Amino acid sequence: MAEETLRRVTDARDVLVGGLGLGYTLRAVLDRVGPQTNVTVAELVPELIEWNRVHLGHLASFPLEDPRCKVALGDVLDHIKTAPSAFDAILLDVDNGPAALSTPHNQQLYGSRGVDYCRRALRPGGVLAVWSQGPSARYERTLARAGLEVEVLSVGAFDTGRARHVLFMARSAARP
Question: N or C, which end of the chain is more exposed by having fewer CB within 10 Å?
Fold first, then answer.
């Protein structure tokens, strides 16, 4: 996800990762950005942040200890709403995708209002990337209706095997 997203962004200065999990997406972002890039990870569950700091950090080479990383405790959508034109890239890895939510509250993130907030939080030419366990034509249409240029990628779930996941890549309009 990080590789595909950052390949589409020139000189990312500010990146938002929605969802800490085990820290793998955050680590992948940190490994692909420059020393001056600010990377914020928004995580809803305080215990997950603590587990990453105390017990799990070694799994992803301690991404929370990287000086470029800032942790924002809370709902990623609340963070996005208060950050107009703040990010070159937003990577959302908070559910199993727009059609397979881990909590019903997250539907707000994938609806037209949530997508519009994401679009507004992107700088011109910025990229919103959303990981999903499968396709969603409805979400793809929602992204396009918000004025984002949408690309849907099918990517291998693992280095081997046939399992596939989907990445929604949505670019905001560049400055004229």
Answer: C
Q: Which residues contact 104 (CB under 8 A, 6 or more apart)?
A: none
Catalytic residues: 93
pLDDT tens digit sequence for 114-167: 999 999 999 999 999 999 988 999 999 999 999 999 999 987 665 666 666 899
Domains along the chain? Answer: 2-171 (3.40.50.150)
